[in-house]
Structures are given as structure tokens and as C-alpha cells.
Structures
1.
Amino acid sequence: MKSWTALTKAGLQTRLAAAAGAALAVALLISPRFVILALFAVGFNLLFSFTGLLSFGQAAFFAVGGYVCALILLAVPSLLLGVVGGVVAAGVVALIIGFLCVRHTEIYFAMLTLAFGMMIHSIIWKWRAVTGGDDGLVGVPRAPLEIPGLLSIDMADLERYYYFVLLLVVLGIFAIWRVVRSSLGLTLQGIRDSESRVTFIGLSVMKYRLIAFTIAGLASGLAGALMVPLGRSASPAIANWTFSAEPVIATMLGGAFTFAGPIVGSFLFYIIKEIVVIFTGYWMMTLGIIVLALVLGFRGGVVSVIQRQLLPLLERRRNDLGG
């Protein structure tokens, strides 16, 4: 009975993840910004739910990816080069900052990531010659997608760029899903559950935490590199610590410790935010109250509540069929 329940739960989680992935395509009709937020939140969730590390500095890697992509596009009109450059730069910065942060855990880790995130924000704000300071970088071209000798696609049309965003986001989320389902993912979950046991079997906890931190940084960098050409500008606001709260809220809304949770939470967060902004100028306070009510009302997140409600129904159906 227990084994069947475990298999049913695993199958349900897989189906929910697949449904959430399919919903990305539908959600693209609403806004590509939601799709980008979903990738941002899934990257954060790899750290939080599967490694046990709470980061308040993911916006720093989002901003690094976005600003480097913008600088490349302003110099060389190549979308592929801009996106790849932004992702690589974010990965390098995540590797450096992660090396200094993963030595610590719990509140100390969270505060360190917050401090490094605000340091990146300060650099972007002050380095006017490169980043444009508080004005940011404007007029970023949505350059063609070119692979020399193979293809050249004009991305000035928003619809084409939307599909480009969807493709890369799906690939990015799928890559993280493969990580979670791999031996690396199991090791990260082992570290989350019992760091001492993982150390006892001879594995380097710091090494695996650094790998997870870097992967999350790469995902954030990709999200940032996709966002900047969409709006054709890069602003210091995307490096602020308040922006780091968005993937945290999305994960709490959808459900931590589930892979589909951040995707569902991103959808809810985006829709609620867009509706609230229309009706009130005090949208931040109103949004906070609504999000708080949802988090308290759906303990463990929306996806977790769905799982808790569906599993008994599936077990009852199995018993009825067996009887």
C-alpha cells in the first residue's frame, strides 16, 4: 500500500510538472514576462527546495545576464551572442559569489547572498560609464537570431521573439528537471535532509552546493538575458533585492519542495500583480495582503494542496476498482 502511494505521488508530481510545462505555451499568450519569471523561480527553487539554501541575491545574476546581453547587443547585433554572453557572465559571477557563500548555511547564507546582491546593484548604479547608472541602458536592439551559414531570423517581430523565449525557457526548465531527477539531484536532496550523512559517505558538501548555486545563477542569467531584449532596456531595478523576492514569493505561492510549484506560483503572482495594478495605486501593499492570504490559506502552496486532495481520491478509486 505504501509503495503504491509513493508511486502514485511520484506519478502525480510528474503529471503536474508536465501540465505546468504545457501551460507555459498557453501562458505565452498572456505575457512572455510570466514565462521568464517561471524560469527565474525554478532556478531559485533548485537552491531552496532541493538543496536547502535560501538565497536573497538571485536578482544579481538576473541583472548580470541582462546587462551583459544588453552591452553585447549594443556593440554587436547578434541575439544568440548576446544571450550566450549574458548566461556565461552570470554563471561566472555565480561561481565566484557562490564560492564565498556556500561555506555558510541558513540565515548566514541568506544574508551573504543579500549583501552580494546589493553590491552588484551598487556597482550597476554607480558605474555610469558602462551601465548607464540610474538611467540604465536604453535602445537595446532586438537583433536577428543568426547562426552563420545556417539561418538568420529577424526578431524585430515580437511574436517571433516570444517563441524564441518560450523555446529557451522550456529547454532551461527541462535541464533543471533533469538535474533534479539525476544522481546530482539526489545528492543535493541528501545534503538538504542531512548534511552530516552526506559528509560521512565521503562527498564534498561545499562542492555540490557550489554546483547548485552556479546552475541557479545560470538560470537567472538566462532569464535576465531574455528579459532585456523584450523591453529593449536594462534598469538597475532588476538588480535590487526587492526583485529577488519575486521568485521567492512565486515558489511559496505554488509550493516549495515540488518542481511544478514555482511555475504555477509564477502564473498566480503575475496575474494577481497585473490585476491589482489596474485597480489601485497602492498595489504593493494590496499585493502583499493577497499573497499573504494565499500562502496562509494554501499551506505548502497550491500544488501541494492539489496533491493532498488528489492522492486520497486516487487511492479511493483504486480501492473501489480493486473491490
2.
Amino acid sequence: MHLSEKIKPFKYCPACGSGDISFGDMKKIGCRDCSFTYYHNVAAAVAAILEYDKKIVLIERAKDPGKGKLDLPGGFVDPKESAEEAIKREIKEELKINLRELRYLGSYPNIYKYKDVIYHTCDLFFYSKIDAIPTDFDKTEIEELILVHPVNAYIELCKLKILSFRYSSSR
């Protein structure tokens, strides 16, 4: 698929408003009138495999993309933030808990589609044990928390076609 098909919102140059834009390789958009160049680079995302009582915590998403589907808690890395800081922040925001020990599992490529834009991501996976199931979680992001046996967690997440999760869980 050509970049112009992936990034439909770009019909005009964001710098000068010209419609004379070109789509280069997989990530470059340029304006022929003002020479503005935009690079649609890979976005870093983090996810946590949280273990409680030999089970894995999955979230049911409360909003799109993927409303009603199961997922791992996590999100995107903010500017000037490390992956470790990002996963701790995301877990604190979503689940209202602090992670103590964190083990890095690996990073894997993925594709994330949101509002007609396809983002290539680099998903970084972490593992941590937690002492209790959060009860005061962010209900604007999470419909409910679900505890599942690790094999069932793998099956549910593979149904979502989270290719990067399949890579991380096979290690």
C-alpha cells in the first residue's frame, strides 16, 4: 500500500496549504511548493503483561479503537520519556497502581490504525507481578479487568491479530 493511501488526512501541506504534495517512500511526505517535509516515523508503544495469582490481567477497552476488545494495559511513549517511564505512567494512569519490579521482554513491530491513519509502531513489552487487582481503574479507558490463565491470554490477544504480542509471548 502506498503512503498516500495510508495517510488520507494529508491532502494539503500543513505549512503552506498547497495541494501539490508528494508521497515518497514509506514515511516521507513533501510539498513541491514550499519544500516542507514531514516524516511519518515509527511510534513507540508500551504494554505490560501483569501477573496476579498465576493469571494475566487483560483489559476490556472502553473506547475506540477496539472498544469492547481485550488488550494489555499500556499506551504510547510521550516525547522525552523512556519506555520504562512510559509503562509506569500508563499503568499509574489506567490502573492507579505503581509497578515495583519491571522486566523488559522485547520490542516488536506492529501496525496501529486510528481514524484512517496507519501508524507503524515499535511495541515494547514488559512483565511485572502485582500484589492486588486494581479496583479504582480509569473507567474512561477500561471497561473492566479480566484475569485469565496465560494460555487463554495468549489465545485472546492472538485473536486481535496483535502480531507483536505473538512475538513477545513466544520468547
